[in-house]
Write a structure and sequence with these properties.
seven-stranded parallel β-sheet, globular, 272 residues, two-stranded parallel sheet, alpha/beta, 9 helices
C-alpha cells in the first residue's frame, strides 16, 4: 500500500484528490493549518508550514509520495527540502503563471512559483511539477464558472477585465486530479514540468457566450462591464500547451460541454 502525504489538502483540488486516493486504498495523511480532512480514514497532522516546529511533526521518511498543494514561497520549500527522502516522489503543484511568457504579468506570485520550481530542480529530490491553468469545476472555492452562471441567471452585469477578447485556458478539477493520481501511481518521476490545461483556448467573452447558449438561451443580451482592471480571469492571453502531459500520462481532457453540464448539476444542488 502506498503512503501519501498531501500538504494542504483541505480545499478544492486537495479534497478531490484525497477522495480518489482513498478509493484506491492508499494510506493518506494531510498536513494543514485547519487540522481537518474529508474523511475519518485520513490521518491529520495539524500545523502551519511556515513554522519549523510544526513541519518537524511530519515524519517525511514514511511516504512513498508527497503532493504539495500549497507551496507559495521559497522559504516554505527551504523548511522541507532536506527532509524529503531520496526514495520519495515529490509532486509540486505549481501554476501556469510560472511560464516565462507570463511570470512577470502575475507579479510576486509568478516570480515565487518559478523560483521554487528552479530550487526543486537544483535539489536532489525526485520530482514532477505540474502547472495548471485556471482550474474550474465542482466545489471550487473561487467559483469562476459560478460567477458567470449567477450573473446570467439573474440578468446582472458581468465584470470582465479588458475587452474580454484575450484567449485563456481552463481545466476542470477532475482532470487535474486524474493527472495527480497518475503521477502518484508512477513508480519513478520523470523530473519534468507539465502544463495541465484543457485542449482548447477560449476568449473570456466566448466562454461567457458558451455558458449563455448552453443554459440561458432565452436571454437576449449579455450585460458586460469592461471597467474592471481585475476580474476572475486576466486581461491578457494565458494559454498553455498540454501535449507533454497528454502523451506521457495518456490523459484525455474534459470537453467543455461535458464539464459545464457536470458543473451545473452541482451548482443547482449547492444553491438549493
Amino acid at each position: 500500500m502506498k503512503v501519501v502525504l498531501i500538504i494542504g489538502g483541505n480545499r478544492f483540488v486537495g479534497k478531490a484528490l484525497s477522495k480518489v486516493l482513498l478509493e484506491k486504498n492508499y494510506s493518506v495523511d494531510v498536513f494543514n493549518r485547519s487540522g481537518t480532512s474529508i474523511d475519518s480514514n485520513i490521518n491529520i497532522i495539524k500545523g502551519d508550514r511556515n513554522n519549523k516546529n510544526d513541519v518537524d511533526k511530519i515524519d517525511f521518511t514514511k511516504y512513498d509520495c508527497i503532493v504539495d498543494m500549497c507551496l507559495f514561497q521559497p522559504s516554505q520549500f527551504q523548511l522541507i527540502k532536506n527532509k524529503i527522502s531520496k526514495g520519495t516522489n515529490y509532486i509540486f503543484v505549481s501554476s501556469g503563471v510560472a511560464d516565462g511568457r507570463y511570470v512577470k504579468l502575475f507579479g510576486d506570485y509568478g516570480r515565487d512559483k518559478l523560483k521554487i520550481e528552479n530550487m526543486i530542480k537544483l535539489s536532489d529530490i525526485n520530482f514532477d511539477i505540474i502547472r495548471p491553468s485556471y482550474i474550474v469545476g465542482v466545489n471550487n472555492h473561487r467559483p469562476r464558472l459560478g460567477y458567470f452562471i449567477d450573473r446570467l441567471a439573474n440578468n446582472k452585469v458581468i465584470e470582465v477585465a479588458g475587452d474580454g477578447k484575450n484567449l485563456i485556458n481552463i481545466v476542470f478539477v477532475e482532470d487535474v486530479v486524474e493527472v495527480l493520481k497518475k503521477l502518484v501511481l508512477r513508480n519513478k518521476p520523470k523530473m519534468k514540468t507539465y502544463n495541465v490545461s484543457g485542449d482548447k483556448s477560449w476568449s473570456v467573452m466566448d466562454l461567457i457566450f458558451i455558458i449563455k447558449e448552453k443554459f440561458f438561451q432565452d436571454i437576449d443580451e449579455i450585460k458586460v462591464s469592461h471597467d474592471k482592471l481585475e476580474s476572475l480571469f486576466c486581461s491578457f492571453d494565458f494559454e498553455l500547451d498540454n501535449t507533454d502531459i497528454r502523451t506521457d500520462l495518456n490523459i484525455s481532457f474534459t470537453d467543455i460541454e461535458d464539464g459545464l453540464e457536470k458543473y451545473m448539476e452541482w451548482y443547482e444542488v449547492s444553491k438549493s
